[in-house]
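Reopening this one. Same input as before:
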Amino acid sequence: MKGILTILIFLVFVTSSFDILFNLNLGGFNVRTCYLAAFAFIFVYAGQFKDASRFRFVGIGSFVIWFLFVTAFVWNTQFLTRNIGYLAWLCFNMFACYAIYKYGQLKSAQELIRLYVLSFFVMALVGIAQFMLSAVGIHILITMWWKINKIPRVNALSYEPSYYATYLLIGFVFLYYSQRKGIWYFKQRMQILILSCVAIAIFLSTSRMGILFMVVILLYDFAKMMIRALFTWRISRVNFFMALVFIGAMATVVGRILLDDKQRKLYLAGTGLESTASHSKDTRIRQMNNVFLVFQDSPLVGYSLGGIAPAIAHYYGDKTKDQKKAKEYEGLNIFLEVLAASGIVGFLFFCSWLFQLFRANIKLSGMLRLNGYVRESGILEALRYALIAEFLILVLSQNILRPYLWILIGVTNALYYRFKDQLNQVPSAQS
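Same output, byte for byte:
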């Protein structure tokens, strides 16, 4: 039975980025494969174990109050069905967090992390295979191109390349900082291969934000490493070599783009730089401004998570009760969206929950390190960095309900309590 639960939790992980395949469509809403796997996990678990009602979640009090605000405002919309659907979406994310927590209590932290890391490896390989097949004229599920039917922008099973890169960034940051701390979940060569494949897949997506985040992380960390080496005269050869290889590879790719006028202008298209069109930048600014405008219209009573797009449509004099049409008015910036959805008071509880999530992680990480659990401390730090990177990149894309964000939160939550229990057992073990 534990083998079935392992398969189901792996499906939760590996299908979290699936947007265009293997999803169940109900009334215009996609019930994603990762949620179906989570429901199956909960059903099987509840039938086998008596502790199914026990669930711990960091900052649960603030989270529940925020959830109640979002629920209370579900009626403040011209498109009620969409609001109910988005509220169900938030609940589905919590079911996924529950399933991950239960698996984290049932199995070791190492097993949970290995499954999580392998899911990024599998999806990175899917993207790389997608690119290689296109090179021989086999185009599978590609949504965007550099050159039509010749050079694809890799998206694997996500809506578009930027979604794919946003998902993979979690794996890149987590693995990179784990490796920097000398934490290995597999043999070194295997883990370096996984990290390399994830980085290559992000490159092949050609997502500007995804690549920019990788470059900034690597350059910042490399600079810290070199400064530390100057003062201590000590440096990890593995870390130095890995950082140097990644930075060298990126410098080569970026250099070739910068030196080729045609490629440079193609890549800068939408930014407004070098006299290129600024449609991408302008669209993002307009979308963020739209969210802030509807928030100003109703700062205390929010629109709930699904009501923002209809509220923007109403602001422009358009009445919409169609899911496809509502997407034309989607907002941008997850924090602005939560503000508009929850109202000022509800937003404060959301911020309180986030604060507690990070504070708990930092506090336990420090306590673990002081008590000799250096590996566990490093894992929590790597997860924290991945969360920070994901929240930052989501400011400029998508929304707060993306499954892979909540699965990362679920993994962070599960390992927090796993390590906390481990730390609390120390005194009893010594007595």
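So the earlier flakiness isn't reproducible anymore. For the record, The chain has 16 helices and four strands.
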